[in-house]
Amino acid sequence: MIGVLLPHPVLASVEGAIEFIFTPQSSNVTGGKTVGGLDQVIELTLTQLELTVLALALSLIVALPIGLYLGHRGTGELLAISIGNLGRAIPELALIAFMAALIGVGILNLTIALAVLGVPPILANAFVGIHQVDRATVDAARGIGMTELEILRKVEIPLAIPTLFAGIRGATIAIVATATIAPLAGVLTLGDFIINGNVYGDDGVLAGAIVVALLALVLEFSLAGLQRLLTARGLKVSSA
Amino acid sequence: MPEPKVTDVGSPAGASAVRYENATKRYGGSAEAAVDHLNLEVEAGEVCVLVGPSGCGKTTAMRLVNRTVELSEGDVLIGGESVRERDPARLRREIGYVIQQVGLFPHRTIAENIATVPQLLGWKKDRIRARTVELLELIGLDPELGERYPAQLSGGQQQRAGVARALAADPLVMLMDEPFGAIDPIARERLQNEFLRLQAEIRKTVLFVTHDIDEAIKMGDRIAVMRQGGRVAQYATPAELLMAPADDFVEDFVGADRALKRLALMRVSDIDLWEAPLAHVGQATAEVRAKLRDAEVPYPLLVDSERRPRGWLSERDLAAETVPARPDSPLGPLLDLDDVMRDALADLLQGEAQYAAVADARGRIAGVLSVEIISEFLSSPKARTEEHGAVERPHD
Amino acid sequence: MTSPALLAAVGEVGKGFIQERSSETLPCQATDKLFCFDWAKENIGRYETPSVQHVELVLISVLLGFAIAFALALLAHRHRWLQPPLLAGTGVLYTIPSLAFFFLLLPITGRGRDTAIIALSAYTLQIIYRNTIVGLANVPSSVKDAARGMGLTERQILWKVELPLAAPEIFAGLQIATVSTVAIATLAVFAGGGGLGTPIKAGIDFKTNIIIAGGIAILLAAALGMLLFGIQRLLTPWRRAAAA
Q1: Mind listing the pLDDT tens digit for each residue in A19-71?
Q2: Strand, coil or helix: C22
Q3: What pairs with residue B42 in β-bridges?
Q4: Contact: C184, A206; criterion CB under 8 Å
Q5: CA-CA to B119 of 20 to 30 Å: which in B162, B169, B338, C235?
Q6: CATH of B18-265 given 3.40.1190.20, 3.40.50.2300, 3.40.50.300, 3.50.50.60
Q7: Chain C partners of B97 at a C-beta cutoff of 8 Å?
Q8: What is the interface pTM, i.e. ipTM, of the complex?
Q9: Do A220 and C97 touch (CB under 8 A)?
Q10: Topology adopted by domain C48-235
Q11: What is the phi/psi pair of residue B148, to 5°?
Q12: Residues in chain C closer than 8 A to B149 (CB atoms)
């Protein structure tokens, strides 16, 4: 059926890529070396996943408390928003190269580099999400006798979940995308298939692209699902 | 307020009659009609108030006129022409539309807002500019506010701008949906008074929706009290409504204090005032005492050379040879001939005065009002005549 | 510090760059200095073509993305049932890392600038689409009610009332899209699309080079961002007045 929709060479390419994912192969293109196959794909996927999760965790640890605190107090708006904007402007390729040159290669070092990308969206969105909670609601909570921490935990954060998660998802997307080019700094992730096309051949390149795309989508869906789980029922009803 | 001048820039007849003929609105899936076979005639130049409890269909009925709600059955005729036969957008440009939240365009200046419909109608720039200035004056807004944006105006000013915008193209009919609802009571009263003054000049056909019976009585030439489904329980003048409610529903809605409400329909000038003996500074107190003997009001009123009241004289004041310059008792509440009787009574009671001086437009003494006079009047047969109740609203 | 694999990974485009460099005496490269001003002064001209390419990439991609996303948003504003699928669709395009997207397109569009532009545009769709929809939805209903009641047609309401009032939101989306695109366009080199990624990739272990190329990218992002902000302020005088 798909053959009807796509021109034949495209279909052939997809076929070749899928084959690449599952069976190790060697050919003239790869200079006789055996590449591909499920094991290799899984290995690189796991590396990328590891890098992503570590970087995301680091970003959250750094950015979340600051963003939540500033948002609760209502100060530092300019700072938070500026950092958010700045973060978007960081060129990923330059970041990887620069950080690798500066602090060295290796997963841990790269994690720091990726966290630089992850912090701005989480920080900015945490601030905005908390800050935009209706003041009247917060006043009421304070009036009932909740401590500041309780207000944050029980009132502001639940109401800010959508915005918070938008930031986390944005951070994840940026981190996954940059983790793809980690091979440039010596950490082999799925991007290796794509960047080193001469080693893996065209099939390998396409295979790499497909798996990366799938990985990103799976992460995104997982986060979306987590968000839905964490969103209070009352909010879900209203945002229908 | 300066004398409003209105140049007739629009159509030859300034207003049209509006007639509902079995007008019905049914919302899909609902067995009950929101407006059920409404038959109502509003005469040209009249203010017809649609009043009733929440959800009775009064707003829906109003919107049938400019087709912001479409008729399910029946018809609405403006000046004899069915609204169904007009293109909705064109129709609406001939009808003034004022809603509670005003809905001024935030991104346009007040002047640009006002110019909206004239622009749609293709008026020339000079004509639009002249009309805008005229309207701002008419509506009581400083012309320089025309260059400001809505966010820079107060609530009352925004409302005025909304009314000016609705009047811009000199429409045949005005639709007003709780236009003064979102304002504080003081500003609201002022706006109501000014609108009445305006209406007396320009005499538009107005369909006015409110849930406030007091506002209805104050603003309406005729009032349609509606119940669920837009069914008219009574369609009558305010006086009729107050004196002869058609059924229990209307009576409940109008409220138990009907007699007091009637006071809102009257002005101080409608009543025969008492006279107080007048005294001037330096006058011989013996003369004043002589006047006191046959007076209706047992206290002399000190006035100046222009016959403007200054205060009340006490026994102690009269003990002297001549009338002193400064009287013992302060003037207390000073009423105006034009005051609405209800407000006058309120002032009297608040000032804890038995008598209050009433002055004319130039501040000169016209008579004295007391609570006694008011209650006498309310219980007199004269008060019951329809003629006296249906008071024309005076203007400056 | 640098692995052999790294140097082996340099593509054809970069080869010339490196050969040229190694033919000159460059004490700067040998040392581990953070930034060599001399080298920078001498070689700043190298970055001209990549910079121009970069600007072109960004402008074309953003304009294309805006045209598509804006049209889709207007459509979905009128036909609400389109909103969830469009949001999901643009969301998927946003989630897929651009590098992967380049190469997913490869079989269809081949290497070159076009592939890069398509992928970069796709990335901007969600933010512009979503901001436009939200901006339009945030127009107060009383304003729309008044406009309709006064006799404006649906089309007039859209262009004279709704869109001007949604402009701040739309421009915010445009700003974000532009800044992001400048950053991501550094990857266009992998698709054969040129841009500032070219010098970066070629001299990937040369700090001065990275700083210059990366710095130009950041400055470009900042400049475009501020330009858009300025245009937005010019187009919305009523917001300034209200704040006053």
Answers
A1: 888 877 776 666 666 777 788 888 999 999 999 999 999 999 999 999 999 99
A2: helix
A3: B18
A4: no
A5: C235
A6: 3.40.50.300
A7: 146, 149-150
A8: 0.83
A9: no
A10: MetI-like fold (1.10.3720)
A11: -90, 170
A12: 237-238, 241-242
